[in-house]
Amino acid sequence: MSRRIFSIFLAAILALSYWLNFSYLPVFAQNYQIDSTASIPSYIDSSGTRMPDWSQITLADIPAITQGGSFDISTIAQGTGYSSDELISILGYDPSRSWEAGTHLKDILMLGDLKGVSNLDEWNLAAIAQSTGADLEGLKLSDFGLLKNQTAEDLIYAVPNLENLGLEEVQPLFDLAKAGLGTSKALSLKNSSLGDLANSNFDFANLKMDNIDLSQYDLKSIEGIEDANFGDFSGSDGAMTSEIPSYGIRANG
């Protein structure tokens, strides 16, 4: 069974549980309900059925979940002939999660959930800004939640052309080197290209970005980060959609 089939299956479950307002869905193991008093953009189709207008809906428009719940890969695995680990391998991430009442869908949906039914993993911050009119100015690196779990090597290869820059040219990575390797060692590496460091300096390559205070750096202090596709970041499939700093993300990707 392909990853795409499972991804579509997961997305379908999420969509059905919302639009049909199921009070119980076996795959989710607990209630998954949304505030029915909230209004979202919709239209009447040719059959007279009210349908969500995906072109106008963002994840921020979808109201909060009214009851807590959970979703576990082991429940899906039952009856499929696959173990939980095998399904996780096929999907490329563990889709298990839990939430409390009042949680918004953007904090429940993972990027990987949408992979089989949209191209969100091929989007980047620049594309979202162009599509929604969102302003990236003033954002900090900490606003881009995907960054905190990246290593220096992950980041260097996720951001286009970053590998061609010198360490000293990218202040957050230079400061990361100082924090993780010591100032003296970082200074000795300052003229090295980031690509060379990622390939040959194991200690630097494996430094985690959360070793520095990402809130102290402007988003664009890493040149080209707005052009990095979300799917190119390590572990992005298991990240919540809220990790992307734009509540204007379209619900249909």
Task: Explain how this protein is built.
The chain is 29% helix and 5% strand. The chain is mainly alpha-helical. It has two domains: 3-122, no CATH class; 136-228, no CATH class. Helix 5 packs across helix 8 (194-200). It starts with a helix and ends in a 48-residue tail after the last helix. Residues 15-38 and 247-253 have low confidence and may be disordered.
Kindly summarize this structure in a few lines.
29% of the residues lie in helices and 5% in strands. The chain has 253 residues and is mainly alpha-helical. A two-stranded antiparallel ribbon has the order 1-2. A two-stranded antiparallel sheet has the order 3-4.
General shape: globular
- How many domains is the backbone divided into? 2
For the largest beta-sheet, the strand count, sense and barrel status come to: 2 strands, antiparallel
How far apart are the termini?
Answer: 24 Å
* Rg (CA only): 21 Å
Low-pLDDT residue spans: 15-38, 247-253
List how many beta strands DSSP finds.
4
Key traits:
4 strands, 9 helices, two-stranded antiparallel ribbon, 253 residues, mainly alpha
SSE blueprint and pairings:
Blueprint lengths: L2 H17 L22 E3 L5 E3 L16 E3 L1 H5 L6 H8 L5 E3 L25 H8 L19 H7 L12 H11 L1 H6 L5 H7 L1 H4 L48
Antiparallel strand pairs: 1-2, 3-4
